[in-house]
UniProtKB/TrEMBL annotation:
Protein name (record): SDR family oxidoreductase
Pfam family, any one: adh_short_C2
Protein family (similarity comment): Belongs to the short-chain dehydrogenases/reductases (SDR) family.
Top-level taxon: Bacteria
Organism name: Halopseudomonas pelagia
UniProt-listed SUPFAM superfamilies: NAD(P)-binding Rossmann-fold domains (SSF51735)
CDD domains for this protein: SDR_c
Length: 276
């Protein structure tokens, strides 16, 4: 479904060369927005931009290391030179490749280079992009800044210490944006994303792990990238004009229940007492 609720708007989406970021770019473009595909991988960014343009949308690819202030400043300048305005910033970029996962472990076994990399990309990158985009929004008198966070930023887990730390901080940033710039027309919100594997990610995760995670969701299945992108589109457009300074949870109910729920359900079903 396409609409024009983002017609004449310009959106920057970081980490949009693949996965959830690319899907957010496609969906926002389908609602009429011109998209700046920002990614450290130029070829990936260019591919997504070409896909959007071939579908009749407007897009540009900008290779950017979001942890570098000079590169972020240059990226914002390129977007302004091309489109003349910035209405939406979706801080989606995060580092979570296989190598990073293997090193970003529990605190006692944490590789500090991996920790520093998580801070640099996930947190510093979001701050830098906000720092250099919000002034543009202030001149326009309007804008929506969106942060991608995670349940790992709200709940303890066995690994990914650096990633979780950054995602916890990203729950605070929308509150700061709203408090500091809300009266000037700029909104700040975050999306707490549940497991919505992109592309072929299902095949890279052990089936046993997927089953555990699926059992802990309160929806029949895990999420999809489109379901997350639809939430981002909502926060980007005027339909959410009264929503600011908060984190919208889109996780299939994963974080809403007690940890014992799955085991309790199995107990009641096996004992013949019915469900709770």
């Amino acid at each position: 479904m396409t609409t024009d609720k983002l017609k004449d708007r310009v959106a920057i989406i970081t980490g949009a060369g693949g996965g959830l970021g690319a899907e957010c770019a496609r969906v926002l473009a389908s609602h009429g927005a011109a998209i700046a595909i920002v990614d450290i991988n130029q070829d990936a960014a260019s591919s997504v931009a070409a896909e959007i343009e071939s579908a009749g949308g407007k897009a540009m690819a900008v290779r950017t290391d979001v942890s570098s202030e000079d590169e972020v400043k240059a990226m914002v300048e390129q977007v302004m030179n091309r489109f003349g305005r910035i209405d939406v910033l979706h801080n989606n970029a995060a580092v979570l490749d296989v190598n990073q996962r293997q090193k970003d472990r529990d605190i006692c076994n944490l590789d500090m280079d991996a920790f520093d990399r998580a801070i640099a990309v996930n947190l510093r990158g979001a701050v830098l992009c906000s720092k250099h985009v919000i002034p543009v929004m202030l001149k326009q008198g309007k804008g929506s800044v969106i942060f991608a966070t995670s349940g790992l930023g709200a709940q303890g887990d066995l690994s990914l210490t650096g990633y979780a730390t950054t995602k916890a901080a990203l729950n605070m940033l929308p509150k700061l944006v709203a408090a500091q710039y809300g009266k000037l027309g700029v909104r700040g919100n975050a999306v707490q994303i549940g497991l919505a594997p992109a592309e072929n990610a299902h095949s890279s995760m052990p089936p046993e792990l997927l089953n555990i995670l699926r059992d802990n969701h309160l929806t029949p299945e895990l999420g999809t990238p489109r379901q997350i992108a639809d939430v981002v589109a909502f926060l980007a457009c005027d339909e959410s004009s009264f929503v600011t300074g908060t984190t919208l949870v889109a996780d299939g109910g994963f974080g809403s229940h007690t940890p014992s729920l799955v085991a309790m359900r199995a107990f009641f079903e096996q004992s013949g007492r019915g469900s709770m």
